[in-house]
Amino acid sequence: MSKIISKRVLNGELVIPASKSDGQRAVLAAALTKNGCVIQGLCISDDEKAMLENIRSLGGDYFEKSKGEFEIKPIDRAIQNTHLSVGESGLGLRLITAVCAMIGEKFILMGNGSILTRDQHFFEMHLPQMGVRVSSNNGKLPLELRGKLKPGNYQEYS
């Protein structure tokens, strides 16, 4: 079978969703605002779903207004002894760890799939210097965080 494609001008709108990394960052940033906000263009990857659920577990909330459009309510209370799952997202783990350390309660950070095999000693090496106790499963998830970040100037030396 043969088809002939004719040259012609097309009109319309093309919407390209943000990357899942940008989506996770946008969701978390919205949850850390005073009043929350509406985010459009989320592609709703597993990583973004995990971040949305973690926002809810931390005392924020979200509502899907339409496909790819979410209203994010801010985190307005600290919930102690919370278990959070980052799925397989290394970025999600790094972002949510910082927020948990800022809140300063007890948190258990979990994941699944390939992230369970990744080394997480970084957190055990650096967060205690900042006032947060960290324990892990021999440098792997789950991580248990206790304590609140102390103010100060920190930098990493390689």
Description:
The chain is an alpha+beta fold. The chain is 28% helix and 22% strand. The protein has two domains: 16-76; 78-150. The strands form two sheets. It has a four-stranded mixed β-sheet with strand order 4-5-7-6. A three-stranded antiparallel β-sheet has the order 1-3-2. Helix 1 (20-31) runs parallel beside helix 2 and helix 1 (20-31) runs parallel beside helix 3 (90-103).
Number of separate domains: 2
> Major sheet: order of its strands?
4-5-7-6
The unreliable regions are: none
The average pLDDT score comes to 91
What's the structural blueprint in terms of helices and strands?
Elements: H1 20-31, E1 37-40, H2 46-57, E2 61-66, E3 69-73, E4 82-85, H3 90-103, E5 107-110, H4 121-126, E6 133-137, E7 140-146
Parallel strand pairs: 4-5
Antiparallel strand pairs: 1-3, 2-3, 5-7, 6-7
Question: Which short descriptors sum up this protein?
Answer:
elongated; alpha+beta; three-stranded antiparallel beta sheet; 158 residues; 4 helices; 2 domains; four-stranded mixed beta sheet
In short:
With 158 residues, this protein is α+β, with helices and mostly antiparallel strands. The chain has four helices and seven strands. The chain has a four-stranded mixed beta sheet with strand order 4-5-7-6.
